Amino acid sequence: MPPFALSAVVRKAWELGRNRLDSPPDRPAMVTPGARYAPRGGDGVLVLQNGPNPSTDYYLRPRLEGLGVPVVFADLQDPPRRCRLMASSTSLTVIFCRYASGPWLDALEAAGGRLARVAYFMDDDVPAMIAAPDLPLGYRRRLARGFGAHVRRLSGLASEVWVSSDVLAQRYADSRPQVLTPLPDEDPPEPSAAPSSRVVYHSTGVHGPERQFVVEVARRLAAAGSPAAFEITGDAAVRRACVGLANVAVVPQTSWPAFQQRQRGASAAIALAPLHASPINEARAPPASMRTVRPIAASFGLIRTACCCRWTSTPGPGRSPTCWRNPSAASPWPRRPARA
């Protein structure tokens, strides 16, 4: 019986068993665009994503508003036949955000004559992460299933590759990538003067070293008598590390929409976004920090200090776009990377 026919509990157990039996994934190649589409104006934009996520929200969604054509954000788990834009468009622009899936690749390959352009967008060094021995094996396998298994077909469909930083553009120069800078939906309001001793560090499970770093900071501040109260996203390992620390609350990792909802009305004195020194983190763009800080700051202005490694400001207007531009956006569409 295929796994999709089983209950959620059995399906989860099936996946865990497969993870134990499968060997660690090898590092895949990068997507190299091999498609050429006839130059023409598009009549719709289809963004394919693995559920709601900060990559779409910080890079794509703000730029697609006001384009004057239909824009659809579709989940890779949804069947393509349900997408009305896919059925009606005769000059479709498609953007793969990080991942792909077999059914959508099948549908787009069959619709090749109706495609105007296809872009693959990547905001982490996904090939390197798949082969990184210090990352959780289950996470590496999910990346391999969502990206590595589809590189060849993505290369056949894609007419261009977009990345989030000059570092990624230089690492994958053979893919002729263009750099897409982050564009959050709004700037944070002025900080609140309301006093707070809350310090937050929200992260995903791939940030084990950063979590341990923040736990150690909390430990030392507690020993020094600081009133700072920490909230850290973590798992059982983090909870064990925080035993005896009354100044630390460990909260579970949630989905991106649930995380945003939880921050509504929250306040904090400091939002931390450290990045452990590594080649993978070096390639990360500001949203690795922004996804932690901005959901609180942008909505309510209650962050008094944001501590982020390698923080860079969002570029303003003045750079010439190499692709189309949202007339209302403050930052262009992809640019060619700076030379090393």
Brief summary of the model shown:
This protein has 340 residues and is an alpha/beta fold.
Care to describe what's here?
- This protein has 13 helices and eleven strands.
- With about 350 residues, it is α/β, with parallel strands linked by helices.
- It folds into two domains: about 180 residues, no CATH class; about 110 residues, Rossmann fold (3-Layer(aba) Sandwich), CATH 3.40.50.
- It has a six-stranded parallel β-sheet with strand order 2-1-3-4-5-6. A five-stranded parallel β-sheet has the order 9-8-7-10-11, with helices on both faces.
- Strand 8, helix 10 and strand 9 form a beta-alpha-beta unit.
- The protein is elongated, with a radius of gyration of 21 Å.
Throw out a few tags for this protein.
single chain, 340 residues, alpha/beta, Rossmann fold, 6-stranded parallel sheet, 5-stranded parallel sheet, 11 strands, 34% helix, elongated
Report the strand count: 11
Secondary-structure class: alpha/beta
Count of the domains? 2
* Distance between the amino and carboxyl termini: 52 Å
Strand fraction band? 15-25%
Q: Rough shape?
A: elongated
Query: What is the element string, with H for helices and E for strands?
Result: HEHEHEHEHHHEHEEHEHEHEHHE
Whole-number radius of gyration?
A: 21 Å
Instruction: Please tell me the overall pLDDT.
Output: 81
The number of helices is: 13
Q: Helical proportion?
A: 25-40%
**Low-pLDDT stretches:** 1-6, 289-332
Strand order of the largest sheet: 2-1-3-4-5-6
- Summarize the main sheet: 6 strands, parallel
